[in-house]
Amino acid sequence: MAKSSLDKKFDQIRKREEEKTFSTKKRSRIVNKFLNNRLAVLGLIIFTIIILASIFAPLLSPYDPMRVDLRSMRQPPSFDHWFGTDSTGRDVFTRVLFGGRVSIFIGLGSAILSAVVGIAVGCYAGYKGGWIDVIALRISEIFMSFPQIILVLLLVSITGQSLFNLMAIFILTGWGGMYRLARARMLSLREEEYVQALRSFGLSTFTICYKHMLPNALSPIMVNITLSTAMFILTEAGLSFLGLGVPLNIPTWGNILNVAQDILILQNYWWMWGPVGIVISVFVLCVNFIGDGLRDSTDPSQQG
Amino acid sequence: MKKEILKLRGLKVHFPVQAGVFNRVVGHVLAVDGVDLDIFRGEVLGLAGESGCGKTTLGKAILRLVEPTDGEVKYISQDDDETELTSLEKKDMDPFRKKLQIVFQDPHSSLNPSFTIFGSLQDPLKKFGIKSKEERRKIIGDLLEAVNMRREYMDRYPHEFSGGQRQRIGIVRALCLEPELIVCDEAVSALDVSIQAQVLKLLMQLKKEKNLTYLFITHDLSVTEYLCDRIAVMYLGRIVELCDSEDLYNNTLHPYSEALISAIPVADLDKQTKRIVLEGDVPSPVNPPKGCPFHPRCPKATDICKTEVPTLKKYSTNGNEHYASCHLIDLPEIS
């Protein structure tokens, strides 16, 4: 008697199982769950496109972002200039690409570095408690209670305007939030029984808090990294707008957007600020989608 | 001849209570307040009492998961070497951590959700000198089979298991370093009755196979009855009665134990049991009553109970040692 198609399928599965070729672990669980989230994947794709476009900007655009061309001032978008040109005839598309390099670097870099500092301090202090925790908490409060703008002004007047000063300030003011988040998670996690079990084996503090506890504290931190990436990009734009951020000669998204403070440009030359505004929004949105996806996929209690 | 494995002498765990702006210490929670207890090799010692009486704290203090305030925990090895554990440095504790392990109450928080079973169990093995991954997988696999689970389960995550299965994994974790004493901290309380029986049976079987000693912490006296060789009853951080488990049920000496036993449901319609209902709650361990800590709730309390603290005295019932701390016992005290 001929076997039904279902039987055949079962036979195949059994055969593969016997040959041990039946690999259940092609991709890690986290990657699988992330890929199931459509918005997150979309976010990741656009995020990657924007980053790659910024990195390979010289290949994508024939223009120099700094070169002034007075013959082609304030041209609307055309085949030669996709996003038009600005008041000094520089190609806006090229400037958006090059500006992305700096803006993304500042946003992502400061967010990740401040998270690294915040997590390193927060995990240890939160798990250990005692005087280490008290001191770390007070220090973070001092940094968080200091107005960012004043710090920027101070540092700019002492060391001059530069990209790295700006990042240093972002990290100094940003690590406190991450620290508190990590600490709060650790405080609740350290009462869990699996942590007690690890302690009953006498494992070292480092193994317990960075290897076993940290993965369970990571999901809110991931979301926070993405949110602060977005925030840092926007803050950079704001500070550059005031002339306190990145020096004006370096194109950043903030510096490009800067021209919108002129009511004439705002009303008549939409291409000078419109596209870059959209790029900032889309990028920030993508980063948030990725954050959402990461949160869901790294949360082990959620199945997917 | 019975040999001790642990001797507790005057063990105290006090937690400071802080209040006010400057976190001044305004008092202490006397969670464990002077416990003397011997645990013998190969026995199952039940530790019973209401919630908040300090059972769990006592169990954790033995393992130094909670630092004892005062008193001694002596571990006696098979070669009769005595070691005092509470005064040891952290790293000197390691050889004894291997001997003393714990199974926790809540199967939902006792496993790390981010790691597979193998992932969360392998670090202790690594620490205690099992270097090759193959060997670690073999040890954990064998133990999983010993608790009636499949070897392959070690690569699964905790959320894929039921409560009873997780509790058995918790037992595997406690067993993986081949301990001598396991503190079962309400190990079956969170499970439903049919699973409880299954896990208890498993624990007894493992005890036989591996020569274990259990300190079985529970609030459920009906569980201890079938399980334990001896039972200690705790009230407000102190042991009020300690005896063979049969004697606790048949020759109860302390009025508190009587009340606890009368609360066990009996599955017999014709049998009328007299229930002793205790009035009120356990008094605050921050500020225990003067005299016998049980006197405000004791149905038999007399004047002496209000002023004098009873000590744990030795009596004899059925020819067995029977300790109790109550002023109102008529039996002759033996020394």
In short:
Chain A has 304 residues and is mainly α. Chain A has helices at 5-18, 29-36, 38-55, 57-60, 92-128, 130-145, 148-159, 163-189, 193-200, 205-242, 253-257, 263-268, 274-298.
Overview of this protein structure:
The complex is a heterodimer of chains A (304) and B (335). Chain A is 72% helix and 0% strand. Chain A is built from 13 helices and no strands. Chain A has a single domain, classed as Orthogonal Bundle (MetI-like fold), CATH 1.10.3720. The model of chain A has no long low-confidence stretch (mean pLDDT 83). The two termini of chain A are 40 Å apart. With 304 residues, chain A is mainly alpha-helical. Chain A has helices at 5-18, 29-36, 38-55, 57-60, 92-128, 130-145, 148-159, 163-189, 193-200, 205-242, 253-257, 263-268, 274-298. With 335 residues, chain B is α/β, with parallel strands linked by helices. Chain B has a domain at 257-335. Chain B contains ten helices and twelve strands. An eight-stranded mixed β-sheet of chain B has the order 6-7-8-3-9-10-12-11, sandwiched between helices. In chain B, helix 4 (133-146) packs across helix 5 and helix 5 (163-175) packs parallel to helix 6. Chain B starts with a strand and ends in an 11-residue tail after the last strand.
What layout of secondary structure does this protein have?
The complex is a heterodimer of chains A (304) and B (335).
Chain A lengths: L4 H14 L10 H8 L1 H18 L1 H4 L31 H37 L1 H16 L2 H12 L3 H27 L3 H8 L4 H38 L10 H5 L5 H6 L5 H25 L6
Helix pairs in contact in A: 2-13, 3-5, 3-13, 5-6, 5-8, 5-10, 6-8, 7-8, 8-10, 10-13
Chain B lengths: L3 E16 L4 E17 L3 E5 L6 H8 L7 E7 L5 E3 L9 H4 L2 E4 L13 H11 L5 H14 L16 H13 L5 E5 L7 H18 L2 E6 L2 H7 L2 E6 L2 E7 H6 L4 H8 L40 H5 L5 E5 L2 E5 L11
Parallel strand pairs in B: 3-8, 3-9, 6-7, 7-8
Antiparallel strand pairs in B: 1-2, 1-4, 4-5, 9-10, 10-12, 11-12
Helix pairs in contact in B: 4-5, 5-6
